[in-house]
Amino acid sequence: MTRTEKTLAEAIRGRRATPSFDGTPIPEADLRRILDAGLHAPSGYNMQPWRFIVVQSEEQKKRLRGASYNQAKVEEASAVIVACGDADGWRRDLDLMLEQGLAGGMPESYADQARSTVPNYLSSFTSDQMKTWLTKQVTLAFTSMLLMAEVMGYDTAPMEGFEQEKVHEVLRLPLSYWVVALLAVGHSKGSDKFDGGRFDMGHTVFGEEFGKRLK
Ligand SMILES: Cc1cc2nc3c(=O)[nH]c(=O)nc-3n(C[C@H](O)[C@H](O)[C@H](O)COP(=O)(O)O)c2cc1C
Known about the structure:
The chain is α+β, with helices and mostly antiparallel strands and 215 residues long. Helices cover 47% and strands 13% of the residues. A four-stranded antiparallel β-sheet has the order 1-2-4-3, sandwiched between helices. Residues 16-17, 71, 158-161, 181, 193, 196 line the site of flavin mononucleotide (FMN).
């Protein structure tokens, strides 16, 4: 099937949080391209602490819906990408990150320093600080996936309406995982969603310091 992709600018301005999906399956190649976009996001120290569970089967979507305040779009979407952060990821992945970095031209001196700064920094976190750090990293990958899906002509719905413990149970997640958000991907069903609009720049953007208008 030939398809014209949207530009990134079109995807950003035309995107809406989709209320309802038609449930058509998503081709595997498309899904992988969307996921790959997320995996290329930047992350602190390139530690890539994100983990994604892709839910596509009818029975598992139904169970995930039950963990998401019964939101119908969880079951209707072609795929739901459950975006998580792994608090222990860096412990296992530091060597791999450095190995890949060195292969790509990372200076030895940087690698030597990272071998101590990364564990020092991340092991000093409280549990809440770790959740904040993970949320920051995972959200960047999540947003890249969402925008790639929109560029490709899919409709998306980001979701924070879920219960952490229930999602853990349904997906059998390790204890070190922190669920950040759900991304429903598919094709919209029914009428277009209203555009809620956005506050103008004068409301949310300052120049040089708080309270000063951006010139
Ligand atoms: C992190 C995040 C979580 C959200 N969670 C939900 C959700 O659980 N259920 C829902 O119906 N909409 C959810 N939304 C959609 C927002 O309500 C929607 O993005 C907002 O109203 C603006 O509408 P628009 O995205 O169509 O412009 C979420 C959006 C974001 C960014």
